[in-house]
């Protein structure tokens, strides 16, 4: 696939997170924060399981016993992220939450890219990437300021 297709898919995925955040926050108002987190992930597990069964999973689960410890924590990070969103959205709104989350994601992603952590190809920090961080901080300031 062309690079533009992946960018477009990520824009759609970002839009899904924008919808997911207030939906999960509304669910939390109905059933509680941790129950909402559980329901969100339980639904995701069921759907991921169905997709894995229908597609053959794309690999072998037999390899799980030999993967490094850090490859096991993605789900825990997801739980922390979703729970934090559920708590934050009613207090700071979806837009501020998204920009703040994006600031954390981009800053961390730039460090991961720069050093090539977790088996990805290193992409050195350059002035273009470096200038994005203060611009994103400014966006967060102006979006959140009342």
From TrEMBL:
Alphabetized InterPro entries for the sequence: YdcZ
Spans traversing the lipid bilayer: 38-57, 69-92, 98-120, 127-144
Source organism superkingdom: Bacteria
GO cellular component, one term: plasma membrane
Keyword Transmembrane helix applies: yes
Key words of the record: Membrane, Transmembrane, Transmembrane helix
Pfam families membership: DMT_YdcZ
PANTHER family: INNER MEMBRANE PROTEIN YDCZ (PTHR34821)
Name of the protein described by the UniProt record: Integral membrane protein
Organism of derivation: Sandaracinus amylolyticus
